[in-house]
Every structure is written in structure tokens, then in C-alpha cells.
Amino acid sequence: MGQIDKIATQIESVLKNVSGVTSAQAERLNGGHYIDVDIDRLAAARYGMSVTDVQSIVSTVVGGDNVGEVIAGRERFPINIRYPREIRDSVDNLRQLPIVTDRGAQTTLGDVAAITISDGPPMSAVRTRDCLATSMSIFATPTCNQQ
User: Name one GO molecular function term (predicted).
Assistant: First the structure.
């Protein structure tokens, strides 16, 4: 990603000097923040949980889960439940999230997964082929020739 960002910035600099271009901007490949959940398979297994079980909990907490539908005339609206933003937006709160397993065991998400924040590209900047970054977006605005 660093090499692609460097080349895009160089192309941006060249385009800014092209006659007729009023602005040029390369899409930056940094500035995104991600919550990484690294599931400890052995710890999850001690509580009778699989990786899929932990992933399902994380998915519901962060993204919510559609539990029904409201019908108003011809329109349908999903009913989505999820944890409050103050829990979802804090890594420490996510770590302390209580979990009750199917077996009745009680633990926290932090006991079965390492939760960290990492930096990366904004979601709109990632373009891949076979999981390798392959392209960049450069926006150039030409001037209009009015005669």
C-alpha cells in the first residue's frame, strides 16, 4: 500500500502541472481505523464456544441483527437490534462485554479474543484482485474552454 500511495502522490503532482487541469487529488490509502478481533480458539473452546460462535456475537454487537420487519402500507422496514453506540465504540467496553454460552458458562469477549484498533486504508480506497492492492483513484478536473 505504501508504494501505491507514493506513486499516486507523484502522479497527482504531475497532473497539477498539466495545462487545463484545475485540480488533481489522489485518493489516500491511509486514514481508516479498524477494530481487529483476534479470536483465541483455545480460550473459546474452554467455554464450549467455536470461532463461529464468537464471530456471531461480534457481528451482532457491532452490526446488529435483523429480528423482524415493520410493514407500513407498501413499505417494509427492518427491525435491527444492536448494542448502544457507547459500547460498540469503545475497545475497553467491547473487551468487557459479557457472554453467556450455550452451556451457561459466563465470560467476557476479552477472555476469548484480543481486541485492538489498527490503521489502514479507508474502505473506499481498497481495490483488490486476488487480495493484492492493484489500483488507485486519481481525480483530475479539467478547465472548460469557452469560446
Answer: xenobiotic transmembrane transporter activity
